[in-house]
Write a structure and sequence with these properties.
The complex is a heterotrimer. By secondary structure, chain B is an alpha/beta fold. Helices cover 23% and strands 34% of the residues of chain B. The relative contact order of chain B is 0.08. In chain C, strand 11 and strand 12 form a beta hairpin. Classes of the chains: A alpha/beta, B alpha/beta, C alpha/beta. At the A-B interface, strand 21, strand 22 and strand 23 of A face strand 21, strand 22 and helix 11 of B.
Chain lengths: 481, 479, 260
């Protein structure tokens, strides 16, 4: 009786806690994209010729492509010549030397709740900190090296492990893959590299924290994770950016390679600036993520919690090549205010007895539009393959939208695919029950939404799960009566 | 000037020409509509894999066949009752016992038709005559796509359809017996397209059942581009059936458009067993509050066949309900497709929409693509969809065999069980009996094929190993 | 404590309560009985503030305050507890977490300190034992996969935990075996004090064998048609509701709380 429909329409802006700008001198490339800019990026990083060649091939191919339009999101044209493709904090000293990290940068990360000091870390999580175009610090490298694990910025890896990079770069996401992946291949500036040798179980969680700070820049990082036979690694990424009225482009590429019996768990808590309550500003998050289960019985698991960005457009997928390999995708995507998300996964079953699981939980509030788009493909060789997909959408308020677009393509009779989807609003019965017990409407909604996402949250490492729940609650604030 | 002079067979590479002026007898509005539709096709071309809704279906082979022939310039007056090699009456069979209207190659054939009792005020006519006598009843139907066509085949119907059937029921008219419309394509002429059009105008509170049976004589390719438009006025109830059983050389494209008024009910039931390529579109718009639609389809797709089902349910009003169940049984190198789409428009609260697609793959070379979609812009809704692809349950098969049921019979039993859910939705009586006979006849070869060893891969390990290596040597379709 | 005066309530165009009046004083237990469709559940939901019901006339005073003007959570904070006939399932939300969140919300509203997780464990465990509920159910999502009897025990557990001043139990006894019935009766009895009151809404007088009410009312056609002492319940058991105005035995909307 206290809640009327019109209450739902009353959408206040929500708090974005990471919207500050840190005043750091940046080394910036000139605006725009050209072979010169690419040569400049490559030169700044002192890259070998083969990598420059690869970038230039990608760039020339990119010139022949046009921006895709099939995704279920709407945005104005992006002027690719109005973007700064390289921005690096000037004060960066030598890599690998944590003590010499610029205090300003250290303070910025402290403010973000990420400590770059190894002593202060409560739990064993190694962090690669990426600001704008470059990695500024990577913690626990020495400790990881003892176990044989390589964890470094991408640039350092190109310098220190060129053969590994050359062998795997573009092996999962070729530079011709799609418009944004091709752009990334031409201009990527940094990112993280992780290599876990045969039989090694990575002794701690690895993580990369991405921060966009400079204005007018795009962030184009690349992550490559290789797990050799029997290796195991869990990796997390987090991201934030300042509040600005302009849209900034983030076009990353992530490649995962899992050899025989290897396991890679990749978790994302994405909290890029989503834009204000009127839909002004925010990050365009156009990302290509793919894993290849190259070896038998390998497993790649993607977990994502997407609460930020003005537009999210990504489909972390798994190519299930090895017999008996396993792909998983667990996703929570929230679109509040004027956010748009078109996200899902691709599971390509090639090997025998491969299995994949997809659990997608989408929440739309305010004027948010949320689309699940997923491909499950069983090739002729995928005997005995299995997929189970569950897509649930929750609607909060009359002006939002929830869309479910699965694609199921089966070419083997013994493959079994099951897909289930539901769309509904937050149940009045559940809300009333909680309110009758004294819980306020906003808290009750948040509780129900968190419950709705439980299946996905429990896939996250513990501290990220707590963070994800908090983020979801904050993001829903103001979206409820 | 005859149409043929300006309607040239069109392979896309040769460029497409369509009639610019229409037919001498056309009223002005129709001539304008035909020109507009033809211009649309010329400007937009034919659907290809780049069109999301045609991702899995190629129409190119059909485009090699002329869109029209000179006989289409006027209504054929005498079909003679038989073609050189075949008696059409024999082909028609006994019928469902009510009114039966026969359309041959897109043209109404009165001498083959049986009129029955109709309530007063009801009109049942050839579309050709209706266009001459009551054009005002048909004019609105040519402007349903004034904002642009969903694809060229719809536009072709507007440009080229000259005949078919009009069923026009006044308020509260009730037709108890099914109105059967048999659409035949016959050999003996050069391969060609036909564009039969069926219009059902169900006045408020009226009630009718319409059964479309598409038949063909084996021998040569033909293309049917059928359009059925149904207006279900407030409180009216229309049950619509399509039985598609054309020969394996033919192409069948059909569109069923239904617009539903307040508290009206519409049901569509499809049984597709024939054709080389068959695509069945159902597009229902729930305009009036509290309307209800039920869509059920069964496709049995054998070797050399391709069946595509494209369904759009558009919830545009408060408190409407829709329920869909589509099932496919795919054998040989058949290819089944399901494209189901539910849209709930802003404000269409209280919507209850459900969609299920299940597919059974019976052979190693069978393929299925399914794409159930939900697009929802209102919050107080309950929408679900589900899709499943699999083979006969090996456990169930084993269970039956361990009880002494022979393998082939066990398969037949399980397949029958799978399809029964859809057949149960067909109305009791002659329609259901006809559908069940047809299903039984088409499942027979599927079952005996199972006997010959092209059984599903899991039945024996050696079989499956062979199958996989065979498919790999074909190169698969891995990217 | 509770004064219901000429209450009219409807859902859509259908009037379900048609001038219902009832007074419950502190320290009393009242039973409201009536045939199916007489408006019993509607009364419970209107008192708790459920949305689709519209109060078209009349008033409800709770300790002198306008109960109908309060949100559901304000009523809960003020001590009104509804035991649901069909407790809803809330997937993904652990029962224990839910109970603590609710308890702390109530405590905050009543100006008390919140209870920490460890302290809460002990409190919850004590109540759980009282209602003889399986320990495992504390960690499962709220009511998710609970049997009918387990759900009702969970309702009583919450009633004991939240210590309401006015407990309204909507058919809490329906479908219970004798053990569960005893638990429900014991739970209500333990809350009985000069300062609290309870309204037992029930179809049968089974519960009243275990829990003797101060007053019994017969609800029919959306109004109280007869009131009396405990002996009235026995009379109803013997003769049924025949003879009462049961014009309201029409079909009611689907019960609230069954979820989708």
């Amino acid at each position: 009786m206290s809640t009327t429909r019109s209450d739902w329409a009353e959408l206040a802006g929500r708090e974005y806690a990471y919207g500050f700008v840190t005043d750091i001198d940046s080394d910036l490339a000139p605006k725009g994209l050209s072979e010169e800019v690419i040569r400049l990026i490559s030169a700044k990083k002192d890259e070998p010729d083969w990598l420059l060649d690869w970038r230039l091939r990608a760039y020339r191919h990119w010139l022949t492509l046009s921006e895709p339009t099939w995704q279920n999101v709407a945005y104005g044209p992006i002027d690719y010549d109005d973007i700064i493709y390289y921005a690096a904090p000037k004060a960066r000293v030598t890599p690998g030397s944590l003590e010499e990290v610029d205090p300003e940068l250290r303070a910025m990360f402290d403010k973000l709740g990420i400590s770059l000091s190894e002593q202060e870390r409560l739990s064993g999580v190694a962090v690669d900190a990426v600001v704008d175009s470059v990695s500024v610090a990577t913690t626990f490298q020495a400790k990881l090296a003892e176990a044989g694990v390589i964890f470094s910025s991408f640039s350092d890896a190109v310098r220190d492990h060129p053969d590994l990079i050359r062998a795997h770069l573009g092996s999962v996401v070729p530079y011709k893959d799609n418009f944004f992946a091709t752009l990334n291949s031409a201009v990527f500036t940094d990112g993280s590299f992780c290599y876990v040798p045969k039989g090694v179980r990575c002794p701690m969680e690895l993580s990369t924290y991405f921060r966009i700070n400079a204005a007018g820049t795009g962030q184009f990082e690349r992550t490559l994770i290789v797990a050799e036979d029997g290796a195991e690694v869990s990796y997390l990424e987090g991201c934030t950016a300042p509040m600005r009225d302009d849209n900034q482009l983030h076009a990353a590429v992530v490649e995962l390679v899992a050899m025989e019996d290897a396991r890679i768990k990749y978790s994302t808590v994405q909290n890029w600036y989503p834009g204000d309550a009127e839909g002004k500003g925010g990050i365009y998050n156009f990302v290509t993520k793919r894993g290849r289960c190259a070896g038998a019985r390998s497993k790649i698991s993607w977990t994502q919690v997407e609460t930020g960005s003005a537009i999210t457009w990504k489909y972390p997928g798994v190519v299930l090549q090895g017999d008996g390999s396993v792909g998983e995708f667990y996703s929570v995507a929230l679109s509040a205010n004027h956010q748009q998300a078109d996200t899902g996964t691709k599971m390509i079953h090639i090997g025998k007895n491969t299995t994949s699981t997809i659990v997608s939980k989408a929440i739309s509030a305010g004027h948010g539009q949320n689309t699940y788009r997923g491909l499950v493909k069983m090739l002729r060789s995928a005997q005995g393959a299995r997929n189970h997909t569950r897509c649930d959408s929750l609607l909060i308020g009359p002006d939002c939208g929830a869309h479910t677009f699965p694609y199921i393509e089966v070419k083997h009779p013994s493959a079994r695919v099951e897909h289930e989807a539901t769309t509904s609003k937050v149940s009045d019965d559940q809300l009333f029950y909680a309110r009758q017990r004294g819980i306020g409407e906003e808290e009750a909604t948040s509780m129900i939404v968190n419950g709705f996402c439980r299946e996905v949250f429990r896939e996250l490492p513990m501290e990220f799960a707590v963070e994800a729940q908090r983020l979801l609650s904050v993001s829903l604030e103001g979206a409820v009566g | 000037m005859t149409l043929a002079a300006r309607t040239v067979s069109a392979h896309p590479s040769e460029g497409l020409q369509l009639p610019l002026a229409g037919w001498p007898s056309d009223p002005d509005w129709l001539a304008v509509a035909r020109r507009g539709a033809a211009a649309w096709v010329t400007a937009n071309g034919f659907p290809s894999a780049k069109h999301e809704d045609w991702r899995y279906t190629r129409i190119d082979p059909a485009l090699a066949i002329p869109f029209a022939t000179d006989t289409d310039t006027g209504r054929r007056t005498a079909t003679g009752g038989s073609w050189p090699d075949v008696s059409l009456r024999d082909l028609l069979g006994p019928g469902l016992g009510g009114i039966r209207l026969v359309v041959v190659d897109g043209h109404f054939a009165p001498e083959l038709s049986d009129h029955g009792y109709l309530p007063s005020g009801a009109r049942l006519d050839s579309l050709h005559d209706a266009l001459a006598v009551a054009p005002h009843r048909l004019e609105p139907l040519w402007s349903w796509h004034s904002n642009g066509y969903p694809h060229a085949l719809r536009a072709l119907s507007d440009a080229l359809a000259t005949d078919g059937i009009l069923i026009d029921l006044p308020t509260e008219a009730v037709v108890d017996d099914p109105i059967e419309i048999v659409l035949l394509t016959v050999p003996g002429r050069a391969p060609h397209w036909s564009h039969p059009r069926i219009v059902v105008l169900a006045g408020a509170g009226s009630k009718a059942t319409v059964v479309e049976t598409h038949l063909g004589v084996p021998g040569q390719p033909s293309v049917t581009n059928a359009l059925t438009q149904v207006v279900v006025d407030d409180g009216a109830q229309v049950a619509h059936y399509v039985i598609q059983d054309e020969n394996l050389d033919s192409f069948h494209f059909s569109s069923l458009d239904a617009h539903l008024g307040h508290s009206s009910r519409f049901s569509s039931r499809l049984l597709a067993v024939g054709g080389r390529i068959g695509r069945h579109e159902v597009h229902t718009v729930l305009h009036g509050e509290n309307a209800e639609v039920e869509l059920h389809g069964l496709f049995l797709t054998g070797s050399g066949q391709h069946h595509d089902n494209a369904i759009l349910v558009d919830h545009a009003a408060l408190g409407c309900r829709s329920h869909q169940i589509y099932k496919g049984v795919i054998d040989g190198d058949g290819h089944g497709v399901f494209n189901g789409h539910i849209v709930v428009r802003p404000g269409a609260v209280g919507t209850d929409a459900h969609q299920t697609n299940k597919n059974l793959l019976l052979s190693d070379r069978a393929e299925v693509d399914t794409r159930p979609r939900l697009e929802i812009f209102a919050d107080d809704v309950a929408c679900t969809h589900g899709a499943a692809v699999g083979q006969l349950d090996p456990d169930a098969l084993f269970y039956l065999r361990s009880r002494g049921v022979p393998h082939q019979e066990a398969r037949a039993l399980l397949v029958s069980g799978f399809v029964q859910e859809v057949l149960d939705c067909f109305a009791d009586g002659p329609i259901r009996q006809y559908a069940e006979r047809l299903v039984a006849a088409h499942l027979e070869p599927i079952m005996s094929a199972g006997r010959r060893g092209t059984d599903s891969a899991s039945d024996s390990d050696s079989d499956s190993a062979r199958d996989v290596s065979a498919s790999r040597s074909r190169g698969g379709t891995a990217k | 404590m509770l004064l219901i005066d000429d209450l009219h309530a409807s859902i859509g165009d259908t009037e379900i309560l048609s001038g219902l009046s009832l007074e419950v004083a502190a320290g009393e237990v009242h039973a409201v009985m009536g045939p199916n469709g007489s408006g019993k559940s509607t009364l419970a939901h209107v008192l708790a503030g459920r949305d689709p019901y519209q109060v078209t006339a009349g008033r409800v005073l709770y300790d002198g305050a306008d109960l109908l003007a309060m949100t559901p959570e304000e009523r809960a904070a003020a001590g009104v507890f509804l035991g649901f006939q069909h407790p809803v399932e809330i997937p993904g939300v652990a029962n224990m977490y839910f109970l603590r969140t609710a308890l702390n919300a109530l405590r905050r509203a009543r100006g008390l300190d919140e209870v920490g997780p460890v302290e809460f464990l002990a409190i919850a465990e004590e109540k759980r034992r009282l209602v003889e509920m399986d320990r495992m159910l504390m960690d499962r999502p709220v009511n998710d996969g609970f049997s009918g009897g387990e759900k009702k025990r969970n309702e009583i557990l919450q009633m004991l935990l939240f210590e309401p001043r006015l407990a309204i139990l909507d058919e809490t006894d329906s479908g219970l075996d004798i053990d569960a019935l005893r638990v429900v009766a014991a739970g209500v009895s333990s809350l009985r004090s000069p300062d609290t009151a309870a309204i037992l809404i029930t179809h049968h007088q089974r519960l009243l064998d275990h829990l003797v009410p101060d007053r019994v009312h017969v609800l029919a056609g959306g109004r109280i048609v007869r009131s009396g002492g405990p002996e009235l319940a026995a009379e109803l058991e013997a003769h049924g509701y025949a003879g009462f105005d049961t014009r309201c035995s029409r079909e009611l909307p689907a019960p609230i709380g069954s979820g989708r």
